[in-house]
Design goal:
single chain, 141 residues, mainly alpha, Non-ribosomal Peptide Synthetase Peptidyl Carrier Protein, Chain A, two-stranded antiparallel sheet, 70% helix
């Protein structure tokens, strides 16, 4: 059982997947930072200082007592945060689309070059031609 696990764990595909997950997590953090720290503040500036994280639809306001302690917390739908997450997703999806498109283009170019190279190489005799040649050699012997 240990041998089977070791073969599985150290195959190239599993290691590639692990590397992809780690890089994907780091890429997600970078995109989140770009959206939170650059895009949304700039968009907020263009919309007269609107902070998207604070946009919400309050279903029931918070109830506080005379001392200022919260008796019942606020119930709200945080649609500003949702908008920010949509922007994150769109940036990540577009980035992955561009990368996959680039990879597919490179693969197609490589396959085209391999096909052109294979077409240039001289073709050897077919199996039938070889058999006929062997038959003729045997007849002459």
């Amino acid at each position: 059982m240990w041998k089977e696990f070791k073969e599985f764990a150290f195959k190239g595909n599993v290691l590639d997947l692990a590397i992809g997950v780690i890089i994907g997590g780091a890429f997600g953090k970078i995109v989140t930072s770009i959206v939170n720290d650059i895009i949304m503040p700039a968009f907020g500036y263009l919309t007269s200082g609107m902070d998207f994280k604070s946009l919400k639809w309050t279903l029931s306001p918070a109830e506080v007592d005379a001392a200022g302690a919260v008796i019942k917390p606020e119930a709200a739908i945080m649609y500003g945060n949702f908008i920010q997450n949509i922007v994150d997703f769109l940036i990540i999806a577009f980035s992955i689309f561009v990368i996959i498109k680039f990879i597919n283009k490179a693969k197609a170019k490589q396959q085209k070059e391999e096909a052109a190279q294979a077409a240039e190489e001289p073709k050897g005799p077919t199996q039938e031609e070889l058999l006929v040649e062997i038959r003729d050699l045997l007849k002459n012997k």
